[in-house]
Amino acid sequence: MSANASLERERDGAADAAAEVPAISVEGLTKVYGEGQDAVRAVDDVDLSIERGTTVGVLGPNGAGKTTTIKSLLGLVLPDDGTVEIAGIDAHEQPRAVYRHVGAMLEGARNVYWKLSVRENLEFFAALGGQSVAAARDRHDRLLDAFDLAGKADEPVNDLSRGQKQKVSLACTLARGTDVVFLDEPTLGLDVEASLELRRELRRLAEEEDITIVLSSHDMDVVEDICDRVVILSEGSVIADDPVDELVGVFETQAYRITVEGPVDGATRELLDVEFDAGEWTETGDRTQFDVTLADGDALYDVLDVLRDAGLSLADIDGHDPDLEEVFLEVTGRAEGGEDA
């Protein structure tokens, strides 16, 4: 084997080994604020492993530990226990080395300098990572095009709309070409069209450029559209960590809104209430409408049997699967000791 072939094989082996290292690895992450009876366990023994090129949503109610967890991953908060590795590098022992791999947008448009132009902001943030203007020019041009900012490249950020400022902030987060990106409410302030464009771009970055994205958002539609996986935190602990499709599929209940011709007598209403948890009864004109939530699809036939036995004609039926927001409320309600706990 020639020396060049041997060197090439070594490089390929190193690349394969690097690809097997998780983009983010967290073990036993713990952070406590205060002491004694006043101590608050903001993060409690969190374990996470996030593969390269995946998009993960981090969700949880206020006070769940999301912000502390993310800031610990970024090295902005020093945990009391546990380890954090980014691309195989310890985030707290080698913060400068980790910085080369990580970009973050934690405060929306406040991340950028409003008196500088859009392009000057991109160049500034790239320079912080040691990149020259010339080396980053092609990437910045792609970002300007992707976020529909090319026509505003030389305008001060202060003169842009709120949505455009948000786009600039995200573009600056990506200006250094890092392989791990943390985003907090990236679609905040964007109109529907701009939000959809941003979602498509984030998916492209993950799928085509192998960028790992950790996303925190209260917009469940955004999380459901963008993320491969969802991690739900409650009281500092991970209470769910599943692919989006599987997490939604955990809840097999199906909600239906049923409309029948004519009024529904009291006995039939009571039977439907007791057997199928019917509710939201409304009468409009010569029709009656109500909602039921069923454990499985077969139970719907039982509801229809009750209606038929009562001499009622079905006018309309509409069903929907649970979405991520419903799952989130259900999971956090159970974890916090709700009635389903």
Helix content: 25-40%
Shape category = elongated
Uncertain stretches:
10-17
- The average pLDDT is 85
Q: Can you summarize the main beta sheet?
A: 6 strands, mixed
Reading off the top of the CATH hierarchy, the class of the largest domain is best stated as: Alpha Beta
**Count of the separate structural domains:** 2
Write down how many β-strands occur, each being a DSSP E stretch of 2 or more residues.
14
Classification by helices and strands: alpha/beta
Query: What percent strand?
Result: 25-35%
Order of helices and strands: HEEEHEEHEHHHEHEHEEHEHEEHEH
Number of helical segments with 4 or more residues: 12
CATH superfamily (homologous) name of the largest domain: P-loop containing nucleotide triphosphate hydrolases
Pfam family, one: ABC_tran
Keywords: ATP-binding, Nucleotide-binding, Transport
Domain ABC transporter: 24-260
GO molecular function: ATP binding; ATP hydrolysis activity
Describe, in plain words, how this protein is organized in 3D.
By secondary structure, the chain is α/β, with parallel strands linked by helices. It folds into two domains: 20-248, P-loop containing nucleotide triphosphate hydrolases (Rossmann fold), CATH 3.40.50; 252-321, ACT-like. Chain A, domain 2 (Alpha-Beta Plaits, 2-Layer Sandwich), CATH 3.30.70.1150. It is built from twelve helices and 14 strands. It has helices spanning 3-20, 66-73, 95-99, 118-128, 133-146, 162-173, 192-209, 220-226, 244-249, 266-276, 298-309, 324-335; strands spanning 24-33, 40-50, 55-59, 81-86, 89-90, 102-105, 180-184, 212-216, 229-234, 237-243, 254-261, 279-284, 287-294, 314-320. It has a six-stranded mixed beta sheet with strand order 6-7-8-3-9-10. A four-stranded antiparallel beta sheet has the order 2-1-4-5. Strand 4 (81-86) and strand 5 form a beta hairpin. Helix 4 crosses helix 5 (133-146) and helix 10 packs antiparallel against helix 11. 33% of the residues are buried. Residues 10-17 have low confidence and may be disordered. Belongs to the ABC transporter superfamily. Keywords: ATP-binding, Nucleotide-binding, Transport.
